[in-house]
Structure formats: C-alpha cells, structure tokens
Amino acid sequence: QVQLVESGGGLVKAGQSLRLSCTGSGRALANFNTAWFRQTPGKEREFVGTINKLGTTSSCAPSVEGRFAISRDNAKNTVYLLMNNLKPEDTGVYYCTIPGQPYWGQGTQVTVSS
User: Fold this and answer.
1) Of 66, 83, 95, 111, which one is least surrounded by beta carbons within 10 A?
2) Quick count: other Cβ atoms within 10 Å of Cβ 54?
3) Structural contact between residues 66 and 49, judged by C-beta atoms closer than 8 angstroms
4) Is 80 exposed, middle or buried (0-12, 13-18, 19+ CB in 10 A)?
5) 37-69: per-residue pLDDT in tens?
6) Residue 21 β-bridge partners
C-alpha cells in the first residue's frame, strides 16, 4: 500500500508559478509511474500529466503543455508538478495518483486570481 500526500498549493496571481509536491510513504513511490489530476470547479477530474517511475519520460495534457512540467526525486520519494504562467482556469484541487492503483492523495488547492 502507498500513501500519497500532496502539498505546495496556494493562492497566486495569474502569470505566477507554483511547485506542487507529491510524497509517498509505505511502498516506495519509485516503484510506480505517477500521475497528476485536477478537479476544477464545475468539471470532472481532469488528467494533467504523468511521469514514469525512473523519471526519464513525462508528458502533460495539451491544456497545460508548455506551462507545466513533471519531475521526480526518487531519493526523496517525491514527484513534483511545476506550474508556470498560471491562469485563472488552472484553479482547482490537484491530486497525485498511481495509474492502475487505487491510491490517491487528499489533494492540494490551487487558486489563481486574475
């Protein structure tokens, strides 16, 4: 079993940046590909991006590609979501998860003001 904890959310202005962290405990997060999703107001949970367990391959959804990037530090059991040039429509709760496994964090709130 893996426990996931997201952190790093907050209130920022449009154009600013945030870095979210997803830290795993229990089984090492390094054993798993990891993904980020977000729940924005009025919409279903949306895929943001994913990274493989070695950190050699990552990809992001078209809606955030070029602004967001995913990385990981397996020595710290942590996956990161770097969000640049944030827009008000990026507001939502961001979650990390392990694809194909029933493990989700509690989420971290990101609010972007215009």
Assistant:
1) 66
2) 10
3) no
4) buried
5) 999 888 999 999 999 999 999 999 999 999 999
6) 7, 80
Question: Per-residue b/e over 96-112, b at no fewer than 16 CB within 10 Å?
Answer: bbbeeeebebebbebeb
Any bridge partners for residue 46, and if so which?
Answer: 38
Are 9 and 112 within 8 A, CB to CB? no
Mean pLDDT, rounded, of the chain: 95
**3-class secondary structure per residue, the chain:** CEEEEEECCEEEECCCCEEEEEEEEECCHHHCCEEEEEECCCCCCEEEEEECCCCCCEEECCCCECCEEEEEEHHHCEEEEEECCCCHHHCEEEEEECCCCCCECCCEEEEEEC
Q: How far is CA 38 from CA 15, 20, 56, 79, 91, in A?
A: 19, 12, 23, 15, 9
